[in-house]
Amino acid sequence: MRIENDVKLDFKDVLIRPKRSTLNSRNEVDVHRTFRFLHTGAEWTGFPLISANMDVTGTLAMARALGRFDALTALHKHYPVEALVEFFAGPDGAHAFYSIGTTEADLAKLAKVKQKAPVRLLCLDVANGYAEKFLDTVKRARDENPQAIIMAGNVVTGDMTEALVLAGADIVKIGIGPGSVCTTRNVTGVGYPQLSAIIECADAAHGLKGQVCADGGCTVPGDVAKAYGAGADFVMLGGMLAGHDECDGEIRYEERDGKKAPVGMGFYGMSSEAAMKKYAGGVAAYRAAEGKSVETPYRGPVEHTMGEIMGGVRSMMTYIGATQLKEVPKRTTFVRVTAQTNNVFGGG
Fold first, then answer.
1. What is the pLDDT of residues 247-286, one digit of tens each?
2. What's the rounded Cα separation, in Å, for the pair 346 and 348?
3. Cα dist from 321 to 228, 304, 310, 344, whole Å
4. Is residue 342 pLDDT above 50, yes or no?
């Protein structure tokens, strides 16, 4: 047993310090980025935000909607082959990750889809990215999909980030336990404060010319801005994108003025009891559920929320004088607002 005494921080523990800027308007900043990926040499340009591959938010409708903002969606794993073939054969397929786990059934299903439609973006997603089997699956996926941009996770430390990049991942997904419907920290005691995880893992990945995706912990647009400031190349959102028309959650209605009006939508973690009952018949005897079910307010079309998120990021950039999103980490200085508020650290 050992104890690390270094300070580790979440989004709530810091604010971004403003800097003198020549920018006068949000219209002067560019929230798009262009990435060249390590293992394929392929390029992608867009707003680097990804809807999480949960069955409520990782939908075909969400992919079509976010594609209009040049953003991405990681589709959930439970669509039938026919629906996936039709989607990836069309123009919207360029805006979505095909998601798989580590089972032979997952890999076989991917092979069937690839026979009839191109899969350009591939997300290998497990709760515990430290398992040796997961590393082997990433290596196999790279060998069998040499032209695909591969995102893999989740991990929270630099050593495993490096291992996944070397195994074939272009993007490493960062986060264990920070999600709004994840209970891993409560159930297992395992986790890592998300802001520090992003900072440390981004440093490790960038040293190998890889990228990272911050997955979980964002509850307001300012958290998304902080994630980019910490070095995240991509940010993945679940709860912030739940409750919209493009989601597949169960809607709750109430009578208002004699009419039924939508007021809430169900949302749950993919390791929750609700998800395991839906897809596996229940929670296996050897494990515990590591997610919960909640109701989020009904929010209508996702367009408004995306406007708020992108507007918040643009405004942050004007506060620190960053004209392009790729400049944000270099222009960011975080100020601690919990303990020891006199401690300032960061770039620039």
1. 998 888 888 888 888 888 888 666 655 555 666 666 555 5
2. 7
3. 14, 26, 16, 18
4. no
Mean model confidence pLDDT for the chain: 90
Give the C-alpha distances (Å, rounded to integers) separating 250 from 255, 296, 310.
17, 10, 27
Check residue 249 and give its pLDDT: 86
Please tell me the distance from the alpha carbon of residue 153 to that of residue 176, in angstroms, as a whole number: 9
Distance, in Å, from the CA atom of 17 to the CA atom of 6, rounded to the nearest integer, reads 22
Instruction: Note whether 78 and 87 are within 8 A (CB).
Output: no
**The pair of three-digit structure tokens given for residue 117, joined into one six-digit string:** 């439609």
Indicate which residue of 182, 201, 213, 247 is catalytic.
182
Per DSSP bridges, beta strands 259-268 and 293-297 are: antiparallel
Measured distance CA(264)–CA(185) in Å, rounded? 26
Does 247 participate in catalysis according to the annotation? no
Quote the tokens at residue 348. 């620039």
Q: Would you say the pTM of this structure is higher than 0.85? A: yes
Q: In sequence order, which residues have a C-beta less than 8 Å from that of residue 282 and are 6 or more positions away?
A: 273, 276
Neighbours of 133 (CB within 10 A): 11
Closest by CA position to 306, among listed 296, 295, 314: 314
Torsion of CA 42, 143, 127, 224, to 10 degrees: -10
Mean pLDDT computed over 90-110: 95
Residue 186 CA to residue 299 CA, distance in Å, equals 29
- The reported pLDDT for the residue numbered 291 is 62
Q: Which residues pair with 125 in a beta bridge?
A: 153
171-185 average pLDDT score: 84
Amino acid at site 4:
E
